[in-house]
Amino acid sequence: MFSDESRHTQGRFRCIAAISLPANPRSLVVDLNDELSEALQCEEKGELKWRRVGQRGKRNVPRAKAGIDFLLSHLSDGVRVDAVIWDTADARHAVEGRDDVANYERMFFHLHRALMGRRESASRWHVRPDRLSTSDWNTIRDCLDSRGTWRRDRAQQHLHEEFRWIAPRVATWREADSASTPFVQLADLMAGMAAYTRTKASIVKELFAEESGDQMDLIPRKVPVSQSATRTDEGRVQVVSHLYRGCKARKLGVSLRTDGYLRTHDGRQPVNFWHYEPQHPRDKAPTKVSFTD
Question: 201-249 pLDDT, tens per residue?
């Protein structure tokens, strides 16, 4: 499993995305890694980062589309992407003294617990997050390995199922260098797209409608689609549209047209954009500890 984040300590909308795939046989991971590296043209053009996509209009747009094509073409091999997006202005996050680093760690845990639960129960995981020196990876790993994290409600299972069920475990955990790890670059692309579409939903919706010919009126426009849209936006919406159309063709339940941002309605789908909402009134983001005399 490979993961990366977008804007985890800045901006209103933030995201973590994880690309997971079977580690058995090991040759599958190696082969797919090589194929993705070639698709992203890593050796010739270096690391692909979402923040560089669309610069000067079309920079890195073909590479980003190639990464999307790779992802969608290998869903049948067990490859999937899960992304969690959170709104720092919602009831959970609009708290005084919010600790963005600690909150990132909690969101990382929520995302990985959810996606690990969607795989085989006895799976052994090899976790490869992008390097982030501020994160307490040991604590997150301990939480994901805790039996309490995976305790099942006995009232909702038969006795024989309780004894047969085995919790997932983390086998290895190492930070990855995104520059030399194509799957982390793909995770960065997915996280960047998710946060971008939520941040600029009105622009995405308008540009997508223009591209799709979905305008309600038939009067030709005499001004640009949006006074606030840039050439970078135009390039990025091409990439977002490419992902959406690929998902729609495969009936993956990813929406964009209505709200202007990527959203998956069924988290079991292999392309899953999960917009986190407070789970209960006490679900609050962590705050920084203040020391007073």
Answer: 999 999 998 877 654 333 334 344 555 899 999 999 999 999 999 999 9
The SS3 of residue 173 is strand
Within a 13 Å sphere around the CA of 255, how many CA atoms are in the beta-carbon half?
Answer: 11
Q: Kindly give the pairing relationship between strand 254-255 and strand 263-264.
A: antiparallel
DSSP 133: T
Contact 285, 99 (CB under 8 A): yes
How far apart are alpha carbons 191 and 15 in whole angstroms?
5
Q: Is 251 left (phi over 0), alpha (psi -120 to 50) or beta?
A: left
- Cα(35)–Cα(16) distance, rounded to whole angstroms? 24
3-state SS assignment for residue 273? strand
**Tally of CB atoms within 10 A around 143:** 17
User: pLDDT tens for residues 45-77?
Assistant: 999 999 999 988 788 999 999 999 999 999 999
Residue of 156 and 131 predicted with greater confidence:
131
Which domains occur in the chain, in start order?
Answer: 2-199+265-275 (3.30.420.10)
Helix (H) or strand (E) holding 159: helix 159-164
The whole-angstrom separation of Cα 111 and Cα 83 is 7
Residue type, 265: H
In the structure encoding, which two tokens stand for residue 15, read together?
């995201």
C-alpha dist (Å) from residue 219 to 202, 210, 211, 222: 20, 13, 16, 9
Identity of the residue numbered 3: S
Nearest 5°: the CA angle 189, 286, 111 is 35
Q: Which uninterrupted H or E stretch holds 255?
A: strand 254-255
